[in-house]
Give the backbone structure.
Amino acid sequence: MRLRAGCGLGSPLLDAPANEPLRRGGPGRRLCHRNRPGRAGANDNGRVDVSEPASISTGIAGRYAQAVFDLAREEGMLPALEADIGALESALADSADLRALISSPIYSRDEQGNAILAIGDRMGLTPVMRNVLGLMAQKRRLFVLPNLLAALRTRLADARGEVAAEVTSAQPLSPEQAQQLADTLSAQAGKAVRLQTRVDPSLIGGLVVRLGSRMIDTSIRAKLGQLQNMMKEVG
């Protein structure tokens, strides 16, 4: 998708200031967002309500992801971009402070921007990823970062002719279990499946698998929830 000079309501793809280039080495193509003074939820200190419906968050993240992916592909930086994604996913999983930074409305634009750029520098992120994080902070869009990372993984998998599957388990999968699951999902999808795994002990047991738009939840937590609902209906 090509970035445009004008976009519809709610789209982040508008002209950015000249000092906010996404492309390395100059202004070039930029991610952007319309300045809408007086927008509901805004106040004088630059703090706004960053909550958005999930569908809106997914749409915003998808447009940013396409722009970032296109730039990284043009510059031959897809492997580096994938490394950025993994590093940010790990940081979000490990740091409650980072999760609060991207989602809490108590931080101003400047506070979010300065913090996320410093984090990007320490992590050694690519210029494309670092710049888009700064721009997202400026436009109060950092809350879609998890959606952005997921959308980028999907695009990377598509470029390789693969399908990305997010797998959450109560305990780490062994290499044999991961391979067996990947083979099973590949047979269902009709193409190679790349697993992205994480551990969530609150599942108690079983798996939660998201493959494209499909979600398969075999966790004990889900089964207990279903049992609890059945008991309420009986009562």
